[in-house]
Automatic annotation (TrEMBL):
This is Malate dehydrogenase. Pfam families: Ldh_1_C, Ldh_1_N. Residues 156-322 form the Lactate/malate dehydrogenase C-terminal domain. The keyword Metal-binding does not apply. Keywords: NAD, Oxidoreductase, Tricarboxylic acid cycle. Its EC number is 1.1.1.37. GO terms for molecular function: L-malate dehydrogenase (NAD+) activity. It catalyses: (S)-malate + NAD(+) = oxaloacetate + NADH + H(+). GO terms for biological process: malate metabolic process; tricarboxylic acid cycle. It comes from Gracilariopsis chorda.
Length: 336
């Protein structure tokens, strides 16, 4: 067995956290030969339920779980962590504007970025799940000046999985036969689920589906609003599927994704004309060296370009509304 890797999880007593920690402990994420140490981070109020989660982890008698700790202290919780899964976030309260939600969470993620910068393992990988995930990743990264922005990923894997499942259902094939589905942009209702390059059984999906109307009027809005559809049916937001997507995202980063294109929101380097420095979901591949690389030079048609710009604009607005929390922003000349 390989010596333990420390995985820090914030919001570990929440809905997603509860489902997530069990699966990390079972070895599904880092592999069946990898010992895992879990560092669970919660708020003061979350500490009591977290004790219950810890008891259940103990009762799971997971052979690969070498240690579990719980703390409200970020430095302690992130200390030497190889992976940080940032799930805990302030939920949108009654009467709260979107900008209030952005600011409340930006403060949390600024503190977490600082603590990661000071204490996490040098090559730590950070997956941001808590919403607004893309902008939270930007804030955390900007507050971690000694870390590469590429070490921060905001999760859009759940959106991609939702999109793949819908295509599989429509085509009447198993989900494993569908690949190269892309989520562009923000993890929000402006995201663009794109089937332009998707394949079903290795063939161009659009030529099999032969239904552009379904793609535009059914598929795209349904993926964009899938979160709300689940809340309406279940009475609470998606949790097990979100945990599953987080497991998939880190597993593929750690162990490689073969040739499959995985959607991840990573820092924009200007590819596809997207504004540099925002966390924008793109298709990526990982060859098992713990880096997601964006799939480059895909042709983009007019419809896609319009959809991609729309979600980009939302991310720019989000960035601008938390700008006051980004270090050193006042120092930059406005004319840049
Ligand atoms: P939840 O409310 O059940 O759990 C959140 C937990 O985080 C609570 O236990 C709370 O005490 C804790 N928490 C809050 N602030 C914290 C902080 N500063 N430090 C540490 N812990 C903190 O929420 P749930 O359902 O687990 O969702 C968590 C987040 O994930 C939400 O922001 C949700 O919108 C987001 N989400 C993201 C998805 C994605 O695809 N990126 C999909 C589904 C949810």
């Amino acid at each position: 067995l390989l010596p333990p890797l420390k995985v820090a999880v914030t919001g570990a007593a929440g809905q997603i956290g509860y489902a997530l920690v069990m699966r990390i402990a079972s070895g599904e994420m880092l592999g069946k030969d990898q010992l895992v140490e879990l560092s669970l981070i919660e708020t003061e109020a979350g500490m009591s339920p977290l004790r219950g989660v810890m008891m259940e982890l103990e009762d799971g008698a997971f052979p690969l779980l070498s240690k579990v700790t719980a703390t409200t202290d970020l430095q302690e919780g992130f200390g030497d962590a190889s992976f940080a899964m940032l799930v805990g976030a302030t939920p949108r309260g009654k009467g709260m504007e979107r900008s209030d939600l952005l600011s409340a969470n930006a403060k949390i993620f600024a503190d977490q970025g600082k603590a990661l910068n000071e204490t996490a393992a040098v090559n730590a990988k950070v997956l941001v799940v808590g919403n607004p995930a893309n902008t939270n990743a930007l804030v955390a990264s900007e507050n971690a000046p000694d870390m590469w922005p590429e070490q921060f990923i905001a999760m859009t894997r759940l959106d991609q999985s939702r999109a793949k499942a819908l295509v599989a259902e429509k085509a009447g094939v198993p989900v494993k036969d569908v690949d190269r589905v892309i989520i562009w942009g923000n993890h929000s209702a402006t995201q663009y689920p794109d089937l332009s390059h998707a394949r079903i059984g290795g063939k161009w999906a659009k030529s099999i589906l032969k239904d552009d109307k379904w793609i535009k009027e059914d598929f795209i809005p349904r993926v964009q609003k899938r979160g709300a559809e689940i809340i309406n049916a279940k009475g609470s937001s998606s949790a097990a599927s979100a945990a599953s997507a987080a497991i998939d995202a880190i597993r593929d980063l750690h162990q490689g994704s073969d040739e499959e294109w995985l959607s991840n929101a990573i820092v924009s380097d200007g590819s596809y004309g997207v504004t540099k420095g925002i966390w924008y979901s793109v298709p990526t591949v990982c060859n098992g060296d713990s880096h997601y690389r964006r799939v480059q030079r895909l042709p983009i048609d007019e419809f896609s370009a319009k959809m991609m710009t729309r979600t980009e604009m939302e991310l720019i607005e989000e960035r601008d509304s938390v700008r006051h929390l980004l270090p050193g922003h006042e120092a930059k000349p406005v004319s840049w």
